[in-house]
Amino acid sequence: MSTTLKVAVLGAAGRMGATVCRAVEGADDLELVARLDAGDPVDASTLAGADVAVDFTVPSATEANVHAVLDAGAHAVVGTTGWDDASRGRVTEHLGRVNSGRPDGQGLGVLIAPNFGLSAVLAMTFAAKAARYFESAEVIELHHPDKVDAPSGTARHTAAAVARARSEAGLTAMPDATESGVEARGADVDGVRVHAVRLRGLVAHEEILFGNVGEQLVIRQDSFDRVSFMPGVLLAVREVVSRPGLTVGLENVLDLS
Ligand SMILES: NC(=O)C1=CN([C@@H]2O[C@H](COP(=O)(O)OP(=O)(O)OC[C@H]3O[C@@H](n4cnc5c(N)ncnc54)[C@H](OP(=O)(O)O)[C@@H]3O)[C@@H](O)[C@H]2O)C=CC1
Ligand SMILES: O=C(O)C1=N[C@H](C(=O)O)C[C@H](O)C1
């Protein structure tokens, strides 16, 4: 028996939110029941019976939105950036509280993904696999100039995965003789340098560069259009209802982790 999932979109007037609304409306098994944006309260009444709320808002609002969604008894799919260990920890703790009062298998889920694009998820996965084999690794992310945060959530997630793989392989700091102009070397994310480009005409792009003596590997992905994120967002909406607790990264849903 097929069931229709009710979906609310937070940040519905934004670039991603509007694209998600169209994608949900175009899916036979999903029903768009609420479009919320800045200034709208997030509660059981405004969520209008949604099973899942999708958040593409702003880093300063997303955590509070997720807590409000959980208090209203709905699952959450989150694409907004700005999450760190502390905010993820608070959501895990909140999930533990609400799910302890629910029957087994019916707990609420939150799925946070820094990138829902298949090319980006694969690029991150391949980069993590390659990391242990190279002396040097750097990340370049390239985005539209209306983006408010840098480096991108995707680049942070990628750099952290590369750093983790290097550490597990026993690799130490990368070679870098820079003495002056350190500010030109990009952000330091867990010891991996991350460079952010903002350019009119771009959407979302990432390169991961690996170097050894006499050779280089470049992994690159390009999202030319925000529709590229939609298969991943819809997959997450369908999956989160049967994944109690916190899931971070679409790679876990795609069985790539
Ligand atoms: N995970 C992924 O695959 C992707 C993630 N992103 C991330 O998604 C986020 C949104 O990106 P994008 O759509 O380009 O940004 P936009 O600025 O276009 O959209 C954000 C929307 O959220 C609204 N908003 C602000 N505060 C709240 C609030 N408290 N509650 C509800 N809505 C609110 C904004 O309204 P107003 O303008 O009036 O403030 C705006 O309409 C960013 O963090 C971005 O990095 C983007 C693409 C893909
Ligand atoms: O702001 C964007 O556009 C994007 N944000 C996410 C990020 O910061 O990684 C995902 C994608 O890169 C597009």
UniProtKB/TrEMBL annotation:
Function recorded in the entry: Catalyzes the conversion of 4-hydroxy-tetrahydrodipicolinate (HTPA) to tetrahydrodipicolinate.
Domain (Dihydrodipicolinate reductase C-terminal) ranges: 120-254
Chief subcellular location: cytoplasm
Keywords assigned by UniProt, alphabetized: Amino-acid biosynthesis, Cytoplasm, Diaminopimelate biosynthesis, Lysine biosynthesis, NAD, NADP, Oxidoreductase
Compartment(s) of residence: Cytoplasm
HAMAP family in the cross-refs: DapB
Binding site for (S)-2,3,4,5-tetrahydrodipicolinate: H144, G153, T154
Originating gene: dapB
Catalytic reaction annotation: (S)-2,3,4,5-tetrahydrodipicolinate + NAD(+) + H2O = (2S,4S)-4-hydroxy-2,3,4,5-tetrahydrodipicolinate + NADH + H(+); (S)-2,3,4,5-tetrahydrodipicolinate + NADP(+) + H2O = (2S,4S)-4-hydroxy-2,3,4,5-tetrahydrodipicolinate + NADPH + H(+)
UniProt protein name: 4-hydroxy-tetrahydrodipicolinate reductase
List of residues binding NAD(+): G11, A12, A13, G14, R15, M16, G79, T80, T81, A113, P114, N115, F116
Molecular-function GO terms, alphabetical: 4-hydroxy-tetrahydrodipicolinate reductase
EC numbers, comma separated: 1.17.1.8
Organism: Isoptericola peretonis
Subunit structure: Homotetramer.
Active site positions: H143 (proton donor/acceptor), K147 (proton donor)
Pathway where this protein functions: Amino-acid biosynthesis; L-lysine biosynthesis via DAP pathway; (S)-tetrahydrodipicolinate from L-aspartate: step 4/4
InterPro entries: DapB_C, DapB_N, DapB_N_CS, DHDPR_bac, NAD(P)-bd_dom_sf
Family classification: Belongs to the DapB family.
Domain Dihydrodipicolinate reductase N-terminal: from-to ranges: 6-94
